[in-house]
């Protein structure tokens, strides 16, 4: 089984 | 004052169809350069980014930057009332809490307008870093939709493996294993039928089928789709909207537990 990453960890918050 | 007019309501209908399965509501940010939308889906696994350039509209006026939070279900109800060939105009006053969407038949004999309440969604834009992608694949949008639909039968996940020979989509589950390989096309008569691979380094990534299938709702907007991949970063699935802009979907990869 594979774990789904969240998208926000790849982007920077303003 | 904000006013944006498109010659055919069908484009706006297609754009809404491309985002409404992923987003319940979204903010349309309007400026003199056009309309931008950026939003994560409800489960924060993917991000939708829509750009509509002002020069792609038949008429575009935006005196002051305006953020319009819209319920996309409500917008879908309104757009259902338009004929595909109708002109569509969106209008809002500065600091307004409503937007007016107006449809005009080609012969101007039927004019309808719908006023929709705006929402204060308070969304902040994420900064998306520049990435040098290892592989960029361009392929027919219909083919990509077909592959995502077919492989979703076999597994929740699809593995995309891109090498210089081609791109392979695989799914493995209780039924067994499915592999679909596409080779780069040699020469094609029609540009929209081409499969083109630009590879710096081979890459293999795993993604959830349900999001890929949600992205393929944008297929009616474009003959080709572009997949940009790099190890351990989100996949970018891009559909160009001819003469108007593009819609990009970012999807976080799945990794080994």
Write the layout of secondary structure elements.
The complex is a heterodimer of chains A (14) and B (257).
Chain A (H helix, E strand, L loop, with lengths): L1 E3 L10
Chain B lengths: L1 E5 L2 H11 L5 E7 L2 E7 L5 E8 L5 E4 L3 E6 H8 L7 E6 L5 E7 L6 E7 L17 E6 H11 L5 E6 L3 E7 L4 E7 L12 E4 L3 E6 H7 L8 E6 L5 E7 L3 E7 L2 E3 L1
Antiparallel strand pairs in B: 1-5, 1-7, 2-3, 2-6, 3-4, 4-18, 7-8, 8-9, 10-14, 10-16, 11-12, 11-15, 12-13, 16-17, 17-18
Helix pairs in contact in B: 1-2
Short account of what is shown:
With 14 residues, chain A is mostly beta strands. Chain A has one strand spanning 2-4.
Features:
heterodimer; A: 14 residues; mainly beta; B: 257 residues; 9-stranded antiparallel sheet; 5-stranded antiparallel sheet; 19 strands; 14% helix; 45% strand
Descriptive account of the structure:
The complex is a heterodimer of chains A (14) and B (257). Chain A is built from no helices and 1 strand. In chain A, 0% of the residues lie in helices and 21% in strands. Chain A has one strand spanning 2-4. Chain A is rod-shaped. Chain B has 257 residues and is mainly beta. In chain B, a hairpin with a 2-residue loop joins strand 2 (25-31) and strand 3 (34-40). The model of chain B has no long low-confidence stretch (mean pLDDT 95). The A-B interface holds A 1-14 and B 40, 44-47, 124-129, 157, 206, 208, 233-234, 250-257. Strand 1 of chain A pairs antiparallel with strand 19 (254-256) of chain B, so a sheet runs across the interface.
- Share of residues in strands of chain B: over 45%
Main sheet: strand order of chain B: 6-2-3-4-18-17-16-10-14
Number of strands of chain B: 19
Low-confidence stretches of chain B: none
Q: What is the arithmetic mean of pLDDT of chain B?
A: 95
Principal-axis shape of chain B equals elongated
DSSP summary: helix tally of chain B: 4
Give the oligomeric state of the chains in this entry, treating copies of one chain as homo and distinct chains as hetero: heterodimer
Total of DSSP H or I helical runs spanning 4+ residues of chain A: 0
Count of DSSP E strands of chain A? 1
Averaged pLDDT of chain A? 88
